[in-house]
Amino acid sequence: MSALLRTVPRISRTSFIATQLRLQLRGYVSSYPPHTIIGMPALSPTMSQGNIAAWSKKVGDELAPGQVIAEIETDKAQMDFEFQDDGYLAKILVPEGTKDIPVNKPIAVYVEDAADVPAFKDFTIKDSKLASTGEPAKETEDTDTTVKSTTTISTETKSEQTKANSQSLSSASGRIFASPLAKMLALEHGVALKNVTGTGPNGRIIKEDIEKYLETPREQVSSTSTATTTSTSTTSSATPGTSAPAPPAPPASASATYEDVPITTMRQIIADRLLQSTNSIPSYIVSSDISVTKLLKLRQSLNSSAEDKYKISINDILIKAITVAARRVPDANSYWLPNEKVIRKFKNVDISVAVATPTGLLTPIVKNAESKGLVEISKEVKELAKRAKINKLTPEEFQGGTICISNLGMNPAVSMFTSIINMPQSTILAIATIKKVAIPDATAENGFSFDDQVTITGTFDHRTVDGALGGEFMKQLKRVIENPLELLL
């Protein structure tokens, strides 16, 4: 069911079933002017429900393509909901702060004529075509396509006949032209029409343009999306022996004091994915104590001459070092894709950087890190981490990645730890804190000196990275970090 449902005040001469559905629709909204129901959009591949954090528009406000009308909390971030049509907001059906709203459930109404706004003062969800649960009636599933096709075809044909001569002039003013079906598809998938190139008459965006746009970026993240979706469905309908229902909480003692914190959608998604990763991946770890003395000197030298233009962190240099090791051992920079029956080895290195946020762990991505310098990596990591902590990342900024880094080096108590692989990736690297280690030194007065070292632990998927290759990757990583001039090669 699309997130938009256009109501038409007359019945088209189509099949008998379609006619009956139109009559049924008129029964719901016969007392209201023509209008459109706005449903909760799916703003990420894993989103099945969301929360309305805030409305950016109020009733009566004019709406235009590309304008943000609400801030939606998805399973991973807080995102802007960009509207893709012209009109006026006639009614807000779901107030801000409402949680767990199913995708496609009606959340607002818009009209094309400002004079129609007052008519929707008492409009409710029950007045719309959709049920209050947000799910279409079962008996209309087979004919839903027919109804939408009939509505959009008749509307699109009439629109093209009456506006064909004026579209080229209107385009110059910046207005985006798209067919109703294309607008529905774009809104359902959270696509901004301004990013789509139209191939229809006079640059009009049609359904095929939206489908082509959706296919292009998903070629890179389809595996991640599939894995995430599979994770959600697997945990929600687990088979016996794989994930038994959690037992009820034991009764608390009379003297116990506690606080029950509700499980958020984001926290549930993270829990499901971590559980799927630990249950399904035959992982192993390889640890290495690596000297960072030369790396620290390089960082100090770079920052001392920066003139406040940049500030390189140890993590920035480690990210660059990982790209070098990943290019030398490409098996570690790969996906395990059982559905496609392939192991996908990437030539580019997109590094997922684990960032702790108040609502859970996010992994924004530094894309094509192998082709970026330290300054660019540093600025990008800071910007992504800043927006991750306020839930302002877009799905393409945290979904995907080819290899992951998790750094707890800022905590002096963490001398070594392991991380859980971010499916369908094959490698995640855990960076501990830097410590002083005594090493033999014949030139020193006491026969020893202190070296700055860090313990890095790689967790690998044995299905894609054999043990010898995991060891080779850590060897190459150690070599680059201990000789940071190799970053220039």
UniProtKB/TrEMBL annotation:
- What is the enzyme's main class? transferase
Name the principal localization, coarsely classed. Answer: mitochondrion
Record note on cofactor = Binds 1 lipoyl cofactor covalently.
> Cellular component GO terms, alphabetically?
mitochondrion; pyruvate dehydrogenase complex
Location in the cell reads: Mitochondrion
**Domain Lipoyl-binding as annotated: residue spans:** 35-111
For this protein, what reaction is catalysed? N(6)-[(R)-dihydrolipoyl]-L-lysyl-[protein] + acetyl-CoA = N(6)-[(R)-S(8)-acetyldihydrolipoyl]-L-lysyl-[protein] + CoA
| One Gene Ontology molecular-function label | dihydrolipoyllysine-residue acetyltransferase activity
Write out the GO biological process terms: pyruvate decarboxylation to acetyl-CoA
Query: Can you tell me which residues the record assigns to a coiled coil?
Result: none
Domain of life where this protein originates: Eukaryota
EC number of this enzyme: 2.3.1.12
Q: Any idea which UniProt keywords this protein has?
A: Acyltransferase, Lipoyl, Pyruvate, Transferase, Transit peptide
Name of a matching Pfam family:
E3_binding
Show the segment(s) annotated as Disordered: 131-170, 216-256
* Cofactor(s), by name: (R)-lipoate
Looking at the record, the residues that make up the Peripheral subunit-binding (PSBD) domain are 177-214
Fill in the subunit field for this protein: Eukaryotic pyruvate dehydrogenase (PDH) complexes are organized as a core consisting of the oligomeric dihydrolipoamide acetyl-transferase (E2), around which are arranged multiple copies of pyruvate dehydrogenase (E1), dihydrolipoamide dehydrogenase (E3) and protein X (E3BP) bound by non-covalent bonds.
Q: Which family does it belong to?
A: Belongs to the 2-oxoacid dehydrogenase family.
Q: What does this protein do?
A: The pyruvate dehydrogenase complex catalyzes the overall conversion of pyruvate to acetyl-CoA and CO(2).
Q: Identify this protein by name.
A: Acetyltransferase component of pyruvate dehydrogenase complex
Q: Which gene encodes it?
A: LAT1
